[in-house]
Amino acid sequence: MAVGNHSKTEEERGASRSQSEANKRLKYISLAVLVVQNASLILSIRYVRTLPGDRFFTTSAVVMAEVLKVLTCLLIILLQKRCSVKETVYFLVDSIVFQYKDTLKLAVPSLIYTLQNNLQYVAISNLPAATFQVTYQLKILTTALFSVLMLRKSLSRVQWVSLLLLFAGVAIVQVQQEGNKEKSVADGSNQNYMVGLVAVVISCLSSGFAGVYFEKILKGSSASVWVRNVQLGIFGMVLGMLGLWWNDGASVAEHGFLFGYTSMVWCVIFNQAFGGLLVAVVVKYADNILKGFATSFSIIVSTVTSIYLFGFHVDLLFTAGAGLVIGAVYMYSLPKPAGGSSSPSSSSSSSALPDRGAKMEAFLPKAQGAATPPSSASTSHLTGAAGGGEGGGGATSVSPFLP
């Protein structure tokens, strides 16, 4: 009997070691996916927006990404209904039309995300990719502040210190960029640094407010995250088309909706639309520390790539500012001491485009028996990345993928 118990214990230990090694590999895979998603979206947008020749309409790209997201979510819902078109239609009509009050709740977040997605294009078109990546981390600060003001959540001392360091690091980077801005003007560049800076600051404010507002109005909601994405996408497409008509209506009528679309532009759009979903698949294996490390590492990747791809110049001031931001992001993602009060939603500690990392967890099926706070689905956001998201991204984001 003792021998049998001993062999059983050895088998359990072996299985535990195998599971531990598998989880470790998945963490490294998650890290790689998060870094690639965070860095590639920003770099690819910067690349296509600085190429010579006809430029695509960014407003059309935002709408196209929303269309792809909605189609993807509809396909997933159809698969969940075992490919029954009739059952899927009934389900969508009931969830979106008959429960219209619930649907209308998403109008405000969708408006903000549509604005944010367009602003991210403006910002990346006018700012170096590395500068945007660093500055965009202000969304952590805005999300934390809105969480404190709107949800009455509290931050640990370490988190407050990290937010101060984050702001200081971004400020140092802006001081460093003043000289480069003057050189850009002297070279006759059509990029406007101040326009890009204002766009990224407004984008950070909208990202923070939208994420917290979304959590506040949908706390306790049991609706399917895929239905949420369809609802958001419907508003996103309508509002995106209005923005396209307002800003580029005459040009689109003359040249066409897909004017300037190249294979690289399609890659950017697909990255926006599906990059956040890919992050959602792996994000459950990444804790907050790993997400913070991924964000920090993606800043380094963006900076190094920008040096070779765009001739970006790194000096001591930029290095110091970026270093402070990287350290602040990592500090903010550290777990709070035992007995500490709850921190802002996980979305506030996740990375950029990407908005899309922690917020994407809402996509993932929950393990049976797992305790899930009522607000977790709503906190997980929609944002991606241009967000990419939130990825996103979103990420992301660009617009949310609940993220």
Helix and strand layout, with pairings?
Blueprint: H1 2-50, H2 58-80, H3 85-98, H4 100-104, H5 107-126, H6 129-135, H7 138-151, H8 157-186, H9 193-218, H10 225-255, H11 263-283, H12 288-310, H13 316-333, H14 376-379
Helix pairs in contact: 1-11, 1-12, 2-10, 2-11, 5-9, 5-10, 6-12, 7-9, 8-13, 12-13
Describe the protein's architecture and organization.
Residues 385-395 have a biased composition (Gly residues). One of its GO terms (molecular function) is pyrimidine nucleotide-sugar transmembrane transporter activity. It holds the Pfam family Nuc_sug_transp. With 403 residues, this protein is mainly alpha-helical. The chain has one domain (27-365). It is built from 14 helices and no strands. Helix 2 crosses helix 11 and helix 5 (107-126) packs antiparallel against helix 9. The radius of gyration is 22 Å and the shape is globular. Residues 340-403 have low confidence and may be disordered.
Question: Which labels suit this protein?
Answer:
single chain; 403 residues; mainly alpha; 14 helices; 71% helix; globular; disordered C terminus
What fraction of the residues are assigned to beta strands by DSSP? under 5%
Cα-to-Cα separation, first versus last residue: 53 Å
**Low-pLDDT regions:** 340-403
How large, in whole angstroms, is the Cα Rg?
22 Å
What's the number of helices? 14
DSSP helix fraction: over 70%
The SSE string, one letter per element, is HHHHHHHHHHHHHH
Please provide the count of β strands: 0
Helix/strand class: mainly alpha
- Average pLDDT score: 77
Largest sheet: none
Total number of distinct structural domains = 1
**Globular, elongated, flat, extended or rod-shaped: what is the shape?**
globular
